[in-house]
Amino acid sequence: MVAQSTYVRQEPVSEGSSFVPADPAWLVLEDGVAFQGVRIGASREAGGEVVFTTSMTGYQEVVSDPSYRGQIVVMAYPLIGNYGFSPEAWEAPGPHVAGFIVREATSVASHHLSRETLHRFLHRHEVAGLSGVDTRALVRHLRMHGLQRGVIADDASVETEARAAAIPSLSQQDLVGQVSRASPLVLPGQGPRIMILDCGVKAGIVEALRRRGCEVVLVPHTTSAEEIRVFAPDGVLLSNGPGDPAILGDVIGTVQSLMETYPVMGVCLGHQLLALACGGRTYKMKFGHRGTNQPVIEMPAGLSTGLRPGRVMITTQNHGFAVDPHLPTSLEVTHLNLNDGTVEGIRHRDLPAFSVQFHPEGRPGPTDAEFLYDRFLGLVRERAHHGS
Protein backbone atom coordinates (compact mmCIF):
# COMPACT_ATOMS: atom_id res chain seq x y z
CA MET A 1 0.00 0.00 0.00
CA VAL A 2 1.49 3.35 -1.05
CA ALA A 3 1.20 6.11 1.53
CA GLN A 4 0.56 9.62 0.20
CA SER A 5 1.62 13.09 1.30
CA THR A 6 -1.06 15.73 1.86
CA TYR A 7 0.25 18.87 0.15
CA VAL A 8 -0.43 18.98 -3.60
CA ARG A 9 -0.08 22.07 -5.77
CA GLN A 10 -2.71 21.93 -8.51
CA GLU A 11 -2.45 25.20 -10.43
CA PRO A 12 -0.17 25.69 -13.46
CA VAL A 13 2.90 27.86 -13.01
CA SER A 14 3.07 30.94 -15.21
CA GLU A 15 6.35 31.57 -17.03
CA GLY A 16 6.14 34.79 -18.97
CA SER A 17 3.52 34.47 -21.68
CA SER A 18 3.53 30.68 -21.52
CA PHE A 19 2.65 28.12 -18.91
CA VAL A 20 4.52 25.20 -17.44
CA PRO A 21 2.21 22.16 -17.71
CA ALA A 22 0.97 21.14 -14.28
CA ASP A 23 1.13 17.42 -15.00
CA PRO A 24 0.79 15.45 -11.76
CA ALA A 25 3.63 13.11 -10.83
CA TRP A 26 5.04 11.36 -7.79
CA LEU A 27 8.19 10.73 -5.84
CA VAL A 28 7.93 7.11 -4.69
CA LEU A 29 10.38 5.86 -2.06
CA GLU A 30 11.55 2.28 -1.69
CA ASP A 31 9.62 1.93 1.58
CA GLY A 32 6.36 2.63 -0.27
CA VAL A 33 5.80 6.20 0.93
CA ALA A 34 4.95 8.54 -1.95
CA PHE A 35 4.78 12.32 -2.30
CA GLN A 36 2.67 13.95 -5.01
CA GLY A 37 3.54 17.09 -6.93
CA VAL A 38 3.53 18.54 -10.43
CA ARG A 39 6.26 18.14 -12.97
CA ILE A 40 8.94 20.71 -13.71
CA GLY A 41 11.82 20.11 -16.06
CA ALA A 42 11.84 16.97 -18.17
CA SER A 43 8.75 14.77 -18.33
CA ARG A 44 10.49 11.47 -17.79
CA GLU A 45 11.11 8.94 -15.05
CA ALA A 46 14.22 9.40 -12.90
CA GLY A 47 15.63 7.43 -10.03
CA GLY A 48 18.36 7.72 -7.41
CA GLU A 49 19.12 8.08 -3.73
CA VAL A 50 16.85 10.78 -2.29
CA VAL A 51 18.75 13.35 -0.21
CA PHE A 52 17.97 16.80 1.14
CA THR A 53 19.88 20.03 1.58
CA THR A 54 19.01 22.81 4.02
CA SER A 55 20.61 25.55 1.91
CA MET A 56 18.34 28.58 1.54
CA THR A 57 20.21 29.75 -1.57
CA GLY A 58 22.69 28.21 -3.95
CA TYR A 59 20.37 25.91 -5.87
CA GLN A 60 22.43 26.53 -9.03
CA GLU A 61 25.55 25.25 -7.30
CA VAL A 62 23.62 22.30 -5.89
CA VAL A 63 22.21 21.22 -9.25
CA SER A 64 25.66 21.38 -10.91
CA ASP A 65 27.72 19.89 -8.05
CA PRO A 66 29.25 16.57 -9.24
CA SER A 67 29.01 15.25 -5.66
CA TYR A 68 25.24 14.92 -6.19
CA ARG A 69 25.65 12.44 -9.04
CA GLY A 70 23.12 9.63 -8.75
CA GLN A 71 20.96 11.50 -6.23
CA ILE A 72 17.54 13.13 -6.29
CA VAL A 73 17.95 16.35 -4.32
CA VAL A 74 15.20 17.81 -2.14
CA MET A 75 15.48 21.52 -1.32
CA ALA A 76 14.25 22.00 2.27
CA TYR A 77 13.80 25.75 1.79
CA PRO A 78 10.30 26.23 0.34
CA LEU A 79 10.77 28.81 -2.46
CA ILE A 80 13.33 27.93 -5.14
CA GLY A 81 14.20 29.63 -8.42
CA ASN A 82 13.55 33.25 -7.50
CA TYR A 83 16.89 34.49 -8.90
CA GLY A 84 16.97 32.18 -11.89
CA PHE A 85 20.05 30.54 -13.39
CA SER A 86 23.29 32.16 -14.56
CA PRO A 87 26.42 30.38 -15.87
CA GLU A 88 28.60 32.26 -13.37
CA ALA A 89 27.25 30.13 -10.51
CA TRP A 90 27.75 26.68 -12.00
CA GLU A 91 30.12 24.23 -10.33
CA ALA A 92 30.36 22.11 -13.51
CA PRO A 93 29.46 22.64 -17.18
CA GLY A 94 26.05 21.04 -16.63
CA PRO A 95 23.77 19.51 -13.99
CA HIS A 96 24.61 16.28 -12.17
CA VAL A 97 21.55 15.66 -10.02
CA ALA A 98 19.36 12.70 -10.96
CA GLY A 99 16.25 14.70 -10.05
CA PHE A 100 15.22 17.89 -8.29
CA ILE A 101 12.33 18.40 -5.85
CA VAL A 102 10.98 21.65 -4.41
CA ARG A 103 7.89 22.87 -2.64
CA GLU A 104 7.41 25.89 -4.88
CA ALA A 105 9.26 26.57 -8.13
CA THR A 106 8.85 30.25 -8.90
CA SER A 107 8.43 31.31 -12.51
CA VAL A 108 9.87 34.80 -11.88
CA ALA A 109 13.65 35.09 -12.01
CA SER A 110 14.51 38.45 -10.42
CA HIS A 111 18.24 38.89 -10.96
CA HIS A 112 20.16 40.86 -13.56
CA LEU A 113 22.51 37.91 -14.25
CA SER A 114 19.71 35.40 -14.74
CA ARG A 115 19.51 33.77 -18.16
CA GLU A 116 16.66 31.32 -17.58
CA THR A 117 14.19 30.06 -15.03
CA LEU A 118 14.46 26.89 -12.98
CA HIS A 119 11.92 25.05 -15.13
CA ARG A 120 13.62 26.00 -18.41
CA PHE A 121 17.04 25.02 -17.08
CA LEU A 122 15.87 21.60 -15.94
CA HIS A 123 13.91 21.05 -19.14
CA ARG A 124 16.83 22.04 -21.37
CA HIS A 125 19.15 19.64 -19.57
CA GLU A 126 16.54 16.84 -19.38
CA VAL A 127 16.46 16.76 -15.58
CA ALA A 128 13.19 15.53 -14.08
CA GLY A 129 11.79 17.60 -11.24
CA LEU A 130 8.76 18.07 -9.05
CA SER A 131 7.17 21.18 -7.58
CA GLY A 132 4.30 21.34 -5.12
CA VAL A 133 5.75 18.58 -2.94
CA ASP A 134 5.33 18.72 0.83
CA THR A 135 9.09 18.94 1.31
CA ARG A 136 8.75 19.50 5.05
CA ALA A 137 7.07 16.13 5.45
CA LEU A 138 9.53 14.52 3.03
CA VAL A 139 12.59 15.82 4.88
CA ARG A 140 11.16 14.74 8.23
CA HIS A 141 10.57 11.26 6.80
CA LEU A 142 14.17 11.00 5.55
CA ARG A 143 15.57 12.25 8.84
CA MET A 144 13.51 9.77 10.80
CA HIS A 145 13.92 6.70 8.60
CA GLY A 146 17.18 7.45 6.79
CA LEU A 147 17.93 8.15 3.15
CA GLN A 148 16.22 5.92 0.63
CA ARG A 149 16.19 5.26 -3.07
CA GLY A 150 13.31 6.80 -4.95
CA VAL A 151 11.74 7.31 -8.36
CA ILE A 152 10.05 10.34 -9.93
CA ALA A 153 7.22 8.79 -11.94
CA ASP A 154 3.72 9.36 -13.33
CA ASP A 155 2.12 6.96 -10.86
CA ALA A 156 2.57 5.73 -7.30
CA SER A 157 1.94 2.06 -7.98
CA VAL A 158 3.49 -0.95 -6.31
CA GLU A 159 5.47 -1.46 -9.51
CA THR A 160 7.00 2.02 -9.15
CA GLU A 161 7.94 1.20 -5.56
CA ALA A 162 9.66 -1.96 -6.79
CA ARG A 163 11.65 0.04 -9.37
CA ALA A 164 12.82 2.34 -6.58
CA ALA A 165 13.98 -0.59 -4.46
CA ALA A 166 15.85 -2.06 -7.44
CA ILE A 167 18.07 1.01 -7.98
CA PRO A 168 21.71 0.10 -7.20
CA SER A 169 23.08 1.59 -3.99
CA LEU A 170 25.84 4.20 -4.12
CA SER A 171 28.32 1.49 -3.15
CA GLN A 172 27.36 -0.46 -6.27
CA GLN A 173 27.93 2.39 -8.72
CA ASP A 174 31.10 3.89 -10.17
CA LEU A 175 29.86 7.45 -9.76
CA VAL A 176 33.34 8.98 -9.60
CA GLY A 177 34.07 7.42 -12.98
CA GLN A 178 31.04 9.27 -14.35
CA VAL A 179 32.16 12.73 -13.20
CA SER A 180 35.97 12.65 -13.29
CA ARG A 181 37.62 14.31 -16.26
CA ALA A 182 38.87 12.20 -19.19
CA SER A 183 42.27 13.84 -19.69
CA PRO A 184 44.66 16.23 -17.93
CA LEU A 185 44.08 19.98 -18.04
CA VAL A 186 46.68 22.62 -17.15
CA LEU A 187 45.51 26.05 -15.97
CA PRO A 188 48.54 28.36 -15.90
CA GLY A 189 49.63 30.42 -12.92
CA GLN A 190 52.77 32.03 -11.53
CA GLY A 191 52.68 30.26 -8.17
CA PRO A 192 53.17 26.66 -7.04
CA ARG A 193 51.93 23.83 -9.26
CA ILE A 194 49.02 22.11 -7.54
CA MET A 195 47.77 18.80 -8.87
CA ILE A 196 44.06 18.11 -8.35
CA LEU A 197 43.08 14.45 -8.41
CA ASP A 198 39.69 15.00 -9.98
CA CYS A 199 37.01 12.83 -8.40
CA GLY A 200 34.31 15.34 -9.37
CA VAL A 201 35.94 18.62 -8.41
CA LYS A 202 33.81 21.76 -7.99
CA ALA A 203 34.77 24.86 -9.94
CA GLY A 204 34.94 26.76 -6.65
CA ILE A 205 37.92 24.71 -5.47
CA VAL A 206 39.81 25.35 -8.69
CA GLU A 207 39.06 29.07 -8.50
CA ALA A 208 40.16 29.25 -4.85
CA LEU A 209 43.60 27.95 -5.84
CA ARG A 210 43.88 30.09 -8.95
CA ARG A 211 43.02 33.24 -6.98
CA ARG A 212 46.10 32.44 -4.93
CA GLY A 213 48.25 32.38 -8.06
CA CYS A 214 48.60 28.61 -8.35
CA GLU A 215 49.18 26.72 -11.55
CA VAL A 216 46.45 24.10 -11.37
CA VAL A 217 46.75 20.74 -13.10
CA LEU A 218 43.60 18.60 -13.10
CA VAL A 219 44.00 14.89 -13.80
CA PRO A 220 41.56 11.97 -13.96
CA HIS A 221 41.03 10.00 -10.76
CA THR A 222 42.56 6.97 -12.47
CA THR A 223 45.92 8.72 -12.85
CA SER A 224 48.66 6.73 -11.11
CA ALA A 225 51.20 8.16 -8.69
CA GLU A 226 53.93 7.56 -11.27
CA GLU A 227 52.03 9.53 -13.90
CA ILE A 228 51.43 12.36 -11.43
CA ARG A 229 55.15 12.57 -10.64
CA VAL A 230 55.81 13.28 -14.32
CA PHE A 231 54.03 16.61 -13.84
CA ALA A 232 56.38 17.44 -10.92
CA PRO A 233 53.68 19.04 -8.76
CA ASP A 234 54.46 21.03 -5.63
CA GLY A 235 51.38 19.71 -3.86
CA VAL A 236 48.34 17.49 -4.41
CA LEU A 237 44.68 18.21 -3.63
CA LEU A 238 42.20 15.33 -3.37
CA SER A 239 38.88 16.66 -4.57
CA ASN A 240 35.28 16.21 -3.60
CA GLY A 241 33.12 13.70 -5.46
CA PRO A 242 30.12 11.35 -5.26
CA GLY A 243 29.54 7.90 -3.87
CA ASP A 244 31.19 5.49 -1.44
CA PRO A 245 34.91 6.20 -0.94
CA ALA A 246 35.65 2.64 0.20
CA ILE A 247 35.13 1.24 -3.31
CA LEU A 248 37.90 3.43 -4.77
CA GLY A 249 40.71 0.99 -4.00
CA ASP A 250 43.05 2.12 -6.79
CA VAL A 251 42.64 5.78 -5.84
CA ILE A 252 43.36 4.98 -2.18
CA GLY A 253 46.57 3.24 -3.24
CA THR A 254 47.58 6.28 -5.29
CA VAL A 255 47.00 8.56 -2.30
CA GLN A 256 49.18 6.33 -0.12
CA SER A 257 52.04 6.71 -2.58
CA LEU A 258 51.58 10.48 -3.05
CA MET A 259 51.67 11.19 0.68
CA GLU A 260 55.24 9.95 0.83
CA THR A 261 56.38 12.67 -1.57
CA TYR A 262 54.04 15.68 -1.64
CA PRO A 263 52.02 17.87 0.69
CA VAL A 264 48.43 16.65 0.41
CA MET A 265 45.07 18.30 1.16
CA GLY A 266 41.75 16.46 0.98
CA VAL A 267 38.29 18.05 0.64
CA CYS A 268 35.04 16.16 1.29
CA LEU A 269 35.49 12.82 -0.56
CA GLY A 270 39.20 13.64 -0.54
CA HIS A 271 39.03 13.78 3.26
CA GLN A 272 37.61 10.27 3.36
CA LEU A 273 40.20 9.01 0.86
CA LEU A 274 43.04 10.39 3.00
CA ALA A 275 41.67 8.60 6.06
CA LEU A 276 41.33 5.32 4.15
CA ALA A 277 44.85 5.67 2.73
CA CYS A 278 46.20 5.91 6.28
CA GLY A 279 44.35 2.82 7.48
CA GLY A 280 41.19 4.49 8.74
CA ARG A 281 37.59 3.54 8.00
CA THR A 282 34.48 5.25 6.69
CA TYR A 283 30.77 4.60 7.18
CA LYS A 284 27.46 5.65 5.65
CA MET A 285 25.53 8.22 7.67
CA LYS A 286 21.79 8.05 8.32
CA PHE A 287 21.04 11.18 6.28
CA GLY A 288 24.36 12.98 5.95
CA HIS A 289 25.25 16.66 6.03
CA ARG A 290 24.04 18.81 3.15
CA GLY A 291 23.71 22.53 3.62
CA THR A 292 25.51 25.79 4.32
CA ASN A 293 25.09 26.06 8.08
CA GLN A 294 27.10 23.20 9.58
CA PRO A 295 29.05 24.37 12.70
CA VAL A 296 32.57 23.00 13.01
CA ILE A 297 34.99 23.48 15.91
CA GLU A 298 38.79 23.31 15.78
CA MET A 299 40.40 20.87 18.18
CA PRO A 300 43.59 21.13 20.29
CA ALA A 301 45.50 19.25 17.60
CA GLY A 302 45.39 22.50 15.68
CA LEU A 303 48.01 24.03 17.98
CA SER A 304 50.77 22.50 15.90
CA THR A 305 49.22 23.57 12.60
CA GLY A 306 48.50 27.23 13.20
CA LEU A 307 44.83 26.72 13.97
CA ARG A 308 43.04 28.15 16.98
CA PRO A 309 41.45 25.47 19.18
CA GLY A 310 37.94 26.39 20.15
CA ARG A 311 37.24 28.57 17.10
CA VAL A 312 33.92 27.73 15.48
CA MET A 313 33.33 28.01 11.74
CA ILE A 314 30.06 27.79 9.85
CA THR A 315 30.69 25.55 6.86
CA THR A 316 29.23 24.27 3.60
CA GLN A 317 28.88 20.49 3.38
CA ASN A 318 27.58 17.83 1.03
CA HIS A 319 28.31 14.25 2.04
CA GLY A 320 26.62 11.03 3.05
CA PHE A 321 29.71 9.16 4.25
CA ALA A 322 31.97 10.07 7.17
CA VAL A 323 35.30 9.11 8.70
CA ASP A 324 35.17 6.68 11.62
CA PRO A 325 36.44 8.47 14.75
CA HIS A 326 38.58 5.45 15.73
CA LEU A 327 41.58 6.62 13.76
CA PRO A 328 44.96 4.92 13.29
CA THR A 329 47.73 6.35 15.46
CA SER A 330 49.24 8.17 12.47
CA LEU A 331 46.23 10.52 12.34
CA GLU A 332 44.70 13.02 14.72
CA VAL A 333 41.40 14.88 14.66
CA THR A 334 41.58 18.62 13.95
CA HIS A 335 37.88 19.44 13.54
CA LEU A 336 34.56 18.13 14.88
CA ASN A 337 30.95 18.81 13.93
CA LEU A 338 29.16 20.59 16.76
CA ASN A 339 25.76 19.15 15.82
CA ASP A 340 26.59 15.44 15.99
CA GLY A 341 30.28 15.12 16.88
CA THR A 342 31.34 13.58 13.57
CA VAL A 343 34.94 13.95 12.40
CA GLU A 344 35.29 17.02 10.18
CA GLY A 345 39.07 17.26 9.88
CA ILE A 346 42.19 15.16 10.33
CA ARG A 347 45.92 15.55 9.85
CA HIS A 348 48.87 13.20 9.64
CA ARG A 349 51.17 13.41 12.65
CA ASP A 350 54.39 13.07 10.64
CA LEU A 351 53.64 13.94 7.02
CA PRO A 352 52.44 17.26 5.52
CA ALA A 353 48.93 15.96 4.89
CA PHE A 354 45.53 17.04 6.19
CA SER A 355 41.91 17.01 5.11
CA VAL A 356 38.50 18.45 5.94
CA GLN A 357 35.02 17.10 5.37
CA PHE A 358 33.57 20.51 4.55
CA HIS A 359 34.14 22.87 1.60
CA PRO A 360 36.45 25.73 2.65
CA GLU A 361 35.55 27.77 -0.44
CA GLY A 362 31.81 27.78 0.31
CA ARG A 363 30.08 27.97 -3.08
CA PRO A 364 27.39 28.29 -1.90
CA GLY A 365 27.72 29.38 1.69
CA PRO A 366 30.12 31.05 4.12
CA THR A 367 33.86 31.38 3.58
CA ASP A 368 34.85 31.08 7.25
CA ALA A 369 37.26 28.24 6.43
CA GLU A 370 38.79 29.47 3.17
CA PHE A 371 42.05 30.16 5.00
CA LEU A 372 42.67 26.40 4.93
CA TYR A 373 43.80 26.72 1.32
CA ASP A 374 46.43 29.18 2.55
CA ARG A 375 47.47 26.68 5.18
CA PHE A 376 47.89 24.04 2.47
CA LEU A 377 49.99 26.38 0.35
CA GLY A 378 52.06 27.12 3.46
CA LEU A 379 52.93 23.43 3.66
CA VAL A 380 53.81 23.50 -0.04
CA ARG A 381 56.15 26.47 0.40
CA GLU A 382 57.72 24.90 3.47
CA ARG A 383 58.50 21.74 1.54
CA ALA A 384 59.99 23.78 -1.32
CA HIS A 385 62.12 25.77 1.16
CA HIS A 386 63.57 22.60 2.66
CA GLY A 387 64.10 21.14 -0.82
CA SER A 388 62.49 17.83 0.03
Automatic annotation (TrEMBL):
All residue ranges annotated as the Carbamoyl-phosphate synthase small subunit N-terminal domain in the record: 23-153
Gene3D superfamilies: 3.40.50.880, Carbamoyl-phosphate synthase small subunit, N-terminal domain
Annotated GO biological process: 'de novo' pyrimidine nucleobase biosynthetic process; 'de novo' UMP biosynthetic process; glutamine metabolic process; L-arginine biosynthetic process
Pathway(s) per entry: Amino-acid biosynthesis; L-arginine biosynthesis; carbamoyl phosphate from bicarbonate: step 1/1; Pyrimidine metabolism; UMP biosynthesis via de novo pathway; (S)-dihydroorotate from bicarbonate: step 1/3
Gene name linked to the record: carA
Keyword Acyltransferase tagged: no
Active site residues of this protein: C268, H359, E361
Top-level lineage group: Bacteria
UniProt GO molecular function: ATP binding; carbamoyl-phosphate synthase (glutamine-hydrolyzing) activity; glutaminase activity
Role according to the record: Small subunit of the glutamine-dependent carbamoyl phosphate synthetase (CPSase). CPSase catalyzes the formation of carbamoyl phosphate from the ammonia moiety of glutamine, carbonate, and phosphate donated by ATP, constituting the first step of 2 biosynthetic pathways, one leading to arginine and/or urea and the other to pyrimidine nucleotides. The small subunit (glutamine amidotransferase) binds and cleaves glutamine to supply the large subunit with the substrate ammonia.
Protein name: Carbamoyl phosphate synthase small chain
PROSITE patterns attached to this UniProt entry: GATASE_TYPE_1 (PS51273)
HAMAP family registered for this protein in UniProt: CPSase_S_chain
Organism: Candidatus Segetimicrobium genomatis
InterPro entries hit by this protein: Anth_synth/Amidotransfase (IPR050472), CarbamoylP_synth_ssu (IPR006274), CarbamoylP_synth_ssu_N (IPR002474), CarbP_synth_ssu_N_sf (IPR036480), Class_I_gatase-like (IPR029062), CPSase_GATase1 (IPR035686), GATASE (IPR017926)
UniProt-listed CDD domains: GATase1_CPSase
Reaction(s) catalysed (UniProt annotation): L-glutamine + H2O = L-glutamate + NH4(+); hydrogencarbonate + L-glutamine + 2 ATP + H2O = carbamoyl phosphate + L-glutamate + 2 ADP + phosphate + 2 H(+)
Alphabetized UniProt keyword annotations: Amino-acid biosynthesis, Arginine biosynthesis, ATP-binding, Glutamine amidotransferase, Ligase, Nucleotide-binding, Pyrimidine biosynthesis
Upper lineage: Bacteria, Bacillati, Candidatus Sysuimicrobiota, Candidatus Sysuimicrobiia, Candidatus Sysuimicrobiales
Enzyme class, broadest EC rank: ligase
